[in-house]
Amino acid sequence: MRRSAWGVAGWTAAVALPLAFLIVFFLWPVVALVATGFGGGVTGGGVDLGGIAEVFGSQRTWRVIGNTLSQAGLATVVSVLLGVPAAYALYRLRFPGQTLLRGILTVPFVLPTVVVGVAFSALFGPGGLLEFLGLDRSLAVVVLALAFPNVAVVARTVGGFWARLDDSSEQAARVLGAGRLRAWLMIVLPALAPALASAAALVFLFCSTSFGTVLILGGSRQANVETEIYRLTVQFLDLRGAAVLSLAQFAIVGATLVVSSRLRRAGERAVELREERRDLAKRPELRDAPVLVVFAATVLLLHALPLAVLVARSLRDTAGAWSLANYVALVDPPETLPLDGPVIGAIWLSLRFAVLAALIAMTLGALLALVLSRRPGSRALRRGIDLFDGVVMLPLGVSAVTLGFGLLLTMHRPFGIGFDLRTSTVLIPIAQALVALPLVVRVLLPVLRGIDPALREAAATLGADAFDVLRRVELPMLGRSAGLALGFAFAASLGEFGATSFLVRPGAQTLPVAVAELIGHQAPGSYGAGLAGAVVLGTLTAGIMLLAERMRADGARAEF
């Protein structure tokens, strides 16, 4: 009886702690933001729709919304077209170095958006290798930069499903005379439809809420909803207009989720899945050459080329000579640069924030994954867990800029605390943890759901209570997947820019904020120092992610 009471208390705490964190630091700020858009403000008041009519009556608002939809739509198409060949090469073929290549392809997903924007600016902007194409500040460059990290999302989401897809139906169609392309279109593509719909929805969400990449590459001509919210808040202090635009963003996110759900249900059908086995993957053949060429071109031109140009240009001084001057400027910055001090201070501050955010995200994410992995007999409880899963994933679909803006609105002496949280840096790791939390859950959850229920039942039969099962069965099963989750959380927190740009205080620059300010400053040498800072930030993030991938246990995968 006593053990049962402790078990109930433990599961209650596992639900209550993350839920309280989400309510206080996510749902409340978002609701307050919506209230501001309707004229009620944080403390309530009468509803006033005049601000909505004013904002949506502006031609600029509709241009910004149009930019957001076109950028996200085109980037989603490009990501899917390039991600499917990558999924086939990495999950249906077998060749030396494949595991390492899978890990390397994950790096673009966790690279800070600031680094991605700076890399493509260095490639297509003034003085860049492809400047002659005249694509600087164009829609094409923004789309390519948005596709840069999201090809990995498609490859991992579709590839993980494809690796477990039974191929007997495809082989039967080939025996009956169907060509390879026809068999793939008729058999494999419909089977992949749910995974494709899920991947496309995620990519569209990531692209429609992109901030750093569009801010650096798009300028005012390619402004999206995110950068417009930032402009209205920081430059014009138009909180009401920014809140109304956030409502438009919520509508875009909601519509995306609804369409995705309907597409997934329409495309789902009974498919036979098996556990991924490396021995079932085949060696590349001559007929795989077109797919491998597309995959190689994606890796070399879309991923490697911008990063290589970024590194090369960071090693050039203002006269074009090879030099370490840009890196020296980070260590001993001239007074003309917009830095609070040597960049080592920004690095140290970013690492401290990232450690705190990762610890918060890992603690709450592990509790959430344990709760969400349960499949109780009660239908009401199962529906409650599914609803809880949706709430946990909400930060993935709400932009970091909106989150940072909402925290600014609500964290003025919250709950009667005699201290304005907005004047400190405590909100930065909290916001970063909210961004990283869904990633942690998506890494840990499939591992816990994959545990054979018979193991739990056998342990219970032998007299183990819930805590014993957790300690002896579930936690050991998590194993190195916890290392992968920690890597995702740390890398995502280290490079977070959207919310941090709202919450950072004078004298407390994080490295992504410092890089963005250097890139946008007109002082001589500022752009080069920004390139060097982007290389440092990208190297730190990539190193962390590759280390986490090496710690990953065989078969562990993230459900993006």
From TrEMBL:
Major localisation: membrane
GO annotations of cellular component type: plasma membrane
Protein's cellular compartments: Cell inner membrane; Cell membrane
Keyword Repeat attached: no
Domain of life: Bacteria
Segments forming domain ABC transmembrane type-1: 65-258, 347-548
Keywords: Cell inner membrane, Cell membrane, Membrane, Transmembrane, Transmembrane helix, Transport
Membrane-topology annotation of the record: Multi-pass membrane protein
A GO biological-process term: transmembrane transport
Transmembrane segment boundaries: 72-91, 103-124, 139-163, 184-217, 237-259, 291-312, 346-372, 384-406, 426-445, 481-504, 524-548
Pfam families: BPD_transp_1
Keyword Cell inner membrane assigned: yes
InterPro entries found in the cross-reference section: MetI-like, MetI-like_sf
Family: Belongs to the binding-protein-dependent transport system permease family.
Classification via PANTHER family: INNER MEMBRANE ABC TRANSPORTER PERMEASE PROTEIN YDCV (PTHR43357:SF4)
Protein name: Iron ABC transporter permease
Species of origin: Leucobacter ruminantium
